[in-house]
Amino acid sequence: xxxxxGIGVEENRLSLKQSKSGLRPMQYLDSVFQNQFYTGxxxxxxxxxxxxTRLFADKDYYRALYLAAIAIEELITQISIPxxxxxxxxxxxxxxxxxxxxxxxxxxxxxTQPSVFLANMADCGSIxxxxxxxxxxxxxxxxxxxxxxxxxxxxxxxxxxxRSGQIDFAICGxxxxxxxxxxxxxxxxxxxxxxPCKPFDRDRSGLNLGEAAAYLLLCKxxxxxxxxxxxxxxxxxxxxxxxSYHMTGSDPRGTGALKSMERALARAGLSTSEIDHIHAHxxxxxxxxxxxxxxxxxxxxxxxxxxxxKGLTGHTLAASxxxxxxxxxxxxxxxxxxxxxxxxxxxxxxxxxxxxxxxxVDLKHIMVNSFGFGGNNTSIIISKA
Amino acid sequence: xxxxxxxxFFSSENGTQFNLPEITEILTKNEVRxxxxxxxxxxxxxxxxxxxxxxxxPDAIITGSGKGSVRNIELFLDDIDKxxxxxxxxxxxxxxxxxxxxxLISIKTDCNGYSATHVNFNYTVIxxxxxxxxxxxxxxxxxxLVGFFDEKTDFDDVIYDIGGFRESSGSDxxxxxxxxxxxCFLLLNFDREAGIKxxxxxxxxxxxxxxxxxxIKKNIDNHSQLEFLIGSNNAYEFESIYQPILSAxxxxxPILFKEGLDELPVSSAIGIxxxxxxxxxxxxxxxxxxxxxxxxxxxxxxxxx
Lengths: 385, 305
Known about the structure:
With 385 residues, chain A is of the alpha/beta class. In chain A, 35% of the residues lie in helices and 18% in strands.
């Protein structure tokens, strides 16, 4: 994994344990918003990221691919399964848009010819194509693009494919990099904050965008046992629901979030009382936090144990579901609930108070929420192995 | 998986010909005015597909696009430059989100079921069919509204030209492909009743000739009404793959389902559309769709009645 908290699981673990925020004024993206908005930018230039991957040095690709490659290189060094038996499931919203926006802008302004390279590289599916080519993964692959729930849906589909016996191994997760396209998109919606975000706080001022790549290796428990693979966690269940309310806004009652959480519980065969923590989507936008706060209260009650880590990483869009899932796995390993940075005052619209500081608790089951534009809501339950 | 209904519109002559339907019978004037061309016609197609079988709300909605909502992305990038990253209209950004069409259909139909959007170039059609089938395994989904869309832009033309993947007028381009736009929706149901059924679907690489033949043989049980629909698009260097497969089944006159139409990353959907129409008028039969997208992969889909 790679996020603004660090490269690799151990750097992220350390930052989480120290509550060390990765939010800083944006430095590397070429945009008028440089040094204006706080973002969860991975603190390396695109060139530096390219230099950190062993496999993509031959030519210029794009930032999101380097992020994904760094995450997957970390993952596959820990396993001895033949790569050709691993299918890849990615969630992404923009993939190579950083490259497209450079070349399209030059073409649009000056009719400058784009590179031959662009013909093959910028679409969402190009992430998997390059990863399959370089890592020799199985050709069977999926790319899901359901906005901010993309990675969670990619993971859920991988779980279902494994459960039904269609594949044995999946690397699944998601990636998105910062881009002018998404910075300006969210700014046009007027939900970007110039200061570090405050999820669920009454005085929140919007989200901070972030970037990350986070991937997990999944297989059935008996196969892991047979191969002597270390089991670090179990995905107990998941649920997806269309909210059917608005293209970008959430129903303040949280009807979509409620359905996805209920479906995840039903799939896992667990009750609300068995969920030790809810790793909230918690973007710090008015819409999300009211809807999610109300959904959590409605399902888990006023004393629900929940928090968001967006105050550390910003909103990493398509990657956020996978990033939060790995943060939750680290939480289960450490028996720590990660504190909700930036919260000071309860919001009267839902009245819920998240866990504020890192808190030692025996953790068995964590619900991880991801909600996206178009009313796409996904919840996954991760459990102690 | 049975196909209950199909509706599709595909462009021809390099995107210049496109017989689009009258959408105001279903969409409001406000929707027609606000939404981009692909978004509004896809919304119309999805709703029309449901309307034709009198289903108000599908159990799930799954869409797929080879490249996604590229037109809106480009227009928003234009605005970013034009207005120097300030005072931008969010509408283009919202509609550039690849799952916009799913979201709109769910709002119009009050669908709270499963929703996913696959954007995976040449793998998209097979991914979507796979995901729809996966939903049936869970046992809570009786039908899935499945949609495919792709749109071509002027910038696409340039990059396909540079990549050597498009017909250039007056040139000796060896890959004379016309790229275009298209939308297709299917309503799939999981009843056991007889009907037009998607028997199997899979992607293969170009070097898997024997696997492709075995796969088709394993999945066809009616040789008497057998038709092969192949995705020939004049890109000759990629088309040698078809002949040995056709020979293995003694097929001399395959149907060229992309003939006269433009190429799309989701062009296997054109084959499904054509197969459905051909089988609708018969008591029984089998259509084997084989379709290549550039030299990247070969989709094989068998549809029976």
